[in-house]
Design brief:
The structure holds three protein chains of three kinds. Chain A is an alpha/beta fold. Chain A has helices at about 40-50, 70-75, 95-100, 115-125, 140-155, 170-190, 200-205, 225, 230-235; strands spanning about 5-10, 15-25, 30-35, 55-60, 65, 80, 160-165, 190-195, 210-215, 215-220, 240-245, 250-260. The longest helix of chain A is centred in the C-terminal third of the chain and has 18 residues, at about 170-190. The relative contact order of chain B is 0.16. Chain C has 14 helices and 14 strands. In chain C, the strands form four sheets. In chain C, strands 8, 9, 10, 11, 12, 13 and 14 form a seven-stranded mixed β-sheet that branches. A three-stranded parallel β-sheet of chain C has the order 3-6-7. In chain C, helix 6 (about 130-145) packs antiparallel against helix 7 and helix 7 runs parallel beside helix 13. The longest helix of chain C is centred in the middle third of the chain and has 20 residues, at about 145-165. Chain C is globular. Classes of the chains: A alpha/beta, B mainly alpha, C alpha/beta. Chains in contact: A-B, B-C.
Chain lengths: ~260, ~350, ~300
């Protein structure tokens, strides 16, 4: 168990968003949070990343209380890609990816050969080597996400948290990113925790889904097990057909109406 | 892709940065040389440097001018320009706002208010203590702005708004004092307008410790600022303690600005425009931007000061006018060049 | 000169001299600093026009003047180092001064910067007729021209007593409007110009208002209309010699202006800003004489 939350309560100001939630993430898993807007998906992800402080309860990273670790220590094991990451206009891809080495360097240290090696490797893994001296702002949506993922990879993390990594991309680039994440998980054993809006993408690319509503887990498990028409009605308030794609065995949802 | 190819990709940009630093250093040295050699009283160039080679001679007026008027004035100008430029660069990075400049955090208006109050309201206030009063007012104002913006941390937006509000308050106080005691307005106005006239060795001694220490620390924060530019969430994700780093950077900017303003009054424009000029030339990597801004700021202010005292000789213009006249066209030229690429 | 006047002059001079503690070459100026001049200063740089005027009157011209000091005509021969408001330290130091004389309220905040010039600095203000006599005496002591100083003062006193002896018994009310019609101040008795009204035995309406800055108050035209002074003086600092505008411009835009009896009786006068207001000094007597003519034309007509 690489990441765990034990009865965490999360709030913004005085409003409780997530009351006493517990979950476990196993090493090497791809886990995706699905749920309607306001269900707390991003909030939980931020808490797991130590960006948000829990009102009560503990988050454990590799068995240690995440609050007891320094931000730097956490960043060496866990990388997060927020929803709309922003880079300065004149940043090149290789410079962006180099930022990922920050947790491994003291502020007075200069980048060493090892750091350059990791950056090169990260560019290679994400197939962005040919974009190295392009400005981040001039890349296509898919290329840009790959560059950000390369930066996260440069942190040499064990866990990668992604908040809606495909939301603003066209369908081709969405698949590009999801394929990359899937491959990184397979080849490197990277644990991935994501928030996705597209239920079908989530079903296809995740080992486990966690369905959330109003800050609570409604159901969690393998997509084939939990994605049912009843779940979609209960969590998303939609009427849908759930079919199975025979070649992959993944469930596919086809919504056709709204529940009144 | 070979092991060295990352460095070869980063290489051209790095090289450009280094070249820019060297060019700026050379320009700064030229500006300093010119500033010591040029003045309302004309002293032949070689004589100036002869005089500097030996200690000041009391009876020789040229020696007095070079050693006690031009040299300290130039050195003060260097440090003030560098301090304001570093401060502006830091604040633009911390606030993630290109319009941030050293005067946005209320420090300068606090200095103005304190100085004006000391000079006019308090009877028999010793003039030599005015810079110290200004510094105290500046720091107090900066701390007030930060405290008012605090709410489980300080967001750039709150900081800017707080700075605007406190500045407005301080400026109102200054205006009130000037209105009530308007007989003494003239001498105070020239302090407020800002300039390097009459800045001597005693001003230098009140300035260099702050600029040197705070400036040196600031130059080492380049990597931290780079990460802050990616956003609070991303920066935290990269292991940077955002609130702590932000507080330190704002404090450094505060000290640099307070020291500069307390010695030379309010000189605008340098802190705002120099970092942008540097960015247009060689990018916004703060490990390079900070030292380059320091050199650029020193050069701009020293050159502007030469113009301020020579253009309408014997009348001295406020240096703030000249920094705008010199800096703005250059900036616009660079802006046009960059956008047409 | 009658014996009475001689005696009163003597008393005046002695009072003046004894009021100012003088040890050979040591002076305490109005910024509170005590400065010792080891020798008689040979190269005085003046930062203000009044110092230039008085030094020339003492026949001891300065070696540097501010560009605004243009009286007497010989002053134009003296190099101008800069303006009174923005000092040019390089030029001042190039004049090799061994004494600098300036204004207290204007130049006190420059003391910090004048340190680089490395010459003793004395700062004085002239806010009244008595101040003129006093500063003439002090500058006379500094320059060793005590005889000339005494003569200047006695001439002033003579002309003044001639003036005051003719003042009629009646008490006029008057007001002095200073500045432009959009934002004018009113002079109070403790200002240079208000002091002149006092000497001429006039009830100054400005004395009724609270000081908003030393020597001046702000009164609305309504208040002035209510007080209805017999005589109105207006003065405006001379800004542009090529484009002179009257100090009285713009007041008539206010309908109240026409209702003032001084306006209706044609008792509105514009003062010369230089001698009455901006450059204090021995020419105060010219200003007084002019004001006397305006106030009491029946007595001073054609003088």
């Amino acid at each position: 168990m690489i990441l765990a939350a034990k009865k965490i309560t999360l709030s913004y100001e005085s409003t409780i968003i997530v009351p006493e939630l517990s979950l476990l993430i196993e090493s090497g898993e791809i886990v995706t949070f699905i749920g309607p807007n306001g269900s707390g998906k991003s909030t939980i992800l931020k808490a797991l990343a130590r960006y948000l402080k829990t009102r009560s309860g503990v988050v454990y990273l590799n068995g240690q209380d995440i609050q007891s670790m320094s931000t730097k220590r956490v960043a060496q094991q866990l990388a997060i890609l927020p929803q709309t990451p922003h880079a300065p206009a004149d940043l090149t891809v290789v410079e962006l990816v180099s930022r990922g080495r920050t947790p491994h360097l003291n502020w007075w240290q200069r980048s060493g050969t090892n750091d350059y090696e990791v950056v090169r490797w990260a560019l290679e893994q994400t197939k962005t080597s040919h974009l190295a001296d392009r400005l981040v702002g001039t890349l296509s949506g898919g290329e840009r996400q790959r560059a950000w993922i390369a930066m996260a990879l440069a942190q040499s993390p064990q866990v990668l948290l992604l908040d809606e990594p495909t939301t603003y991309l066209d369908i081709c680039h969405q698949l590009e990113v999801m394929e990359l994440i899937s491959r990184l998980n397979r080849e490197l054993g990277l644990t991935v925790v994501m928030v996705l809006h597209d239920i079908n993408q989530a079903a296809r690319y995740s080992h486990r889904l966690i369905a959330l509503k109003n800050g609570a887990i409604i159901r969690q498990g393998a997509p084939q097990e939990i994605l049912t028409e009843e779940l979609l009605t209960e969590v998303f308030k939609v009427k849908a057909l759930v079919k199975t794609d025979s070649s992959s065995g993944c469930p596919v949802c086809l919504p056709y109406g709204i529940v009144e | 892709m070979s092991n060295n190819s990352v460095t070869t990709i980063v290489g051209p940009k790095r090289r450009r940065q280094w070249i820019t630093l060297v060019v700026l250093a050379v320009l700064a040295i030229l500006a300093i040389t010119a500033s010591i050699s040029i003045g309302p009283v004309s002293i032949p160039f070689f004589q100036v440097w002869e005089l500097l080679a030996k200690p000041p001679v009391q009876s020789d007026i040229s020696s007095q001018i070079v050693w006690n008027i031009r040299l300290p004035r130039t050195l003060v100008g260097c440090l003030v320009g560098a301090g304001l430029a570093i401060s502006g660069a830091l604040l633009q990075g911390v606030m993630r706002n290109p319009l941030a400049d050293p005067h946005i955090i209320g420090v300068s208006s606090g200095a103005g208010f304190a100085a004006v109050t000391a000079m006019i309201v308090i009877p028999n206030f010793p003039p030599s203590l005015v810079p110290m009063a200004a510094f105290t007012g500046a720091m107090a104002s900066g701390i007030l702005v930060y405290a008012l913006a605090w709410r489980a941390g300080v967001s750039p937006m709150r900081m800017i708004l707080s700075g605007v509000a406190v500045s407005a308050l301080m400026n109102a106080g200054t205006s009130a004092v000037l209105n009530i005691y308007s007989e003494n307005v003239q001498s105070v106005m020239s302090w407020l307008a800002g300039g390097l006239a009459g800045r001597g060795w005693h001003h230098w001694h009140q300035l260099w410790p702050y600029i040197l220490i705070a400036g040196s620390i600031a130059l080492l924060t380049g990597r931290q600022v780079n990460v802050l530019l990616l956003g609070d969430e991303m920066a935290t994700g990269l292991g940077v303690r955002v609130e702590r780093v932000r507080m330190m950077l704002i404090m450094l900017a505060c000290i640099l600005t307070a020291a500069a303003v307390s010695v030379s009054g309010l000189i605008g424009f340098v802190g705002l425009i120099v970092p942008h000029i540097i960015r247009l030339i060689a990018g916004s990597d703060y490990r390079f931007l900070l030292p380059a801004s320091a050199l650029g700021g020193a050069t701009l202010l020293v050159l502007a000061d030469i113009a301020a005292r020579m253009v309408l000789d014997p009348i001295e213009l406020p240096v703030g006018i000249l920094t705008a006249c010199l800096g703005a066209p250059f900036f616009l030229y660079l802006l046009r060049r960059r956008t047409t690429h | 000169m009658t014996k009475a006047i001689k005696i009163s002059l003597l008393i005046a001079l002695i009072t003046l001299v004894s009021v100012i503690p003088v040890l050979s070459g040591t002076f305490t100026d109005e910024s509170g600093r005590t400065v010792t001049l080891p020798n008689k200063p040979e190269r005085i740089v003046a930062l203000s026009p009044w110092a230039v005027e008085i030094l020339f009157a003492l026949d001891y011209p300065p070696v540097g003047r501010p560009s605004s000091a243009v009286y007497p005509e010989e002053a134009l021969q003296v190099p101008a180092h800069g303006t009174s408001y923005r000092l040019n330290y390089e030029r001042i130091i190039a004049l090799r001064p061994d004494l600098i004389i300036g204004n207290d309220n204007l130049h006190r905040s420059f003391l910090d910067q004048l340190v680089s010039v490395n010459a003793p600095v004395l700062l004085y203000d002239i806010d009244s007729y008595q101040d003129v006599l006093e500063k003439v005496t002090i500058l006379g002591q500094i320059t060793g021209q005590t005889k000339q100083a005494a003569k200047i003062n006695s001439d002033l006193e003579t002309r003044l007593s001639k003036l005051t002896s003719k003042l009629p018994n009646k008490k006029l009310t008057a007001v002095v409007l200073v500045g432009s019609s959009e934002a004018f101040s009113v002079a109070k008795g403790n200002s240079y110009i208000g002091n002149q009204l006092q000497i001429l035995g006039v009830d100054n309406i400005g004395d009724r208002g609270p000081e908003h800055r030393p020597g001046f108050t702000k009164l609305s035209l309504e208040y002035i209309a209510q007080a209805n002074p017999d005589v109105i003086f207006a003065v405006k600092p001379a800004v542009d010699p090529n484009n002179p505008s009257s100090a009285l411009d713009g007041y008539d835009k206010n309908p109240l202006w026409a209702s003032l009896s001084a306006v209706q009786n044609g008792r509105v006068y514009e003062l010369d800003p230089v001698i009455s207001f901006m450059n204090p000094g021995p020419r105060i007597i010219d200003s007084l004489e002019f004001m006397a003519q305006c106030l009491y034309p029946e007595v001073f007509a054609g003088e």
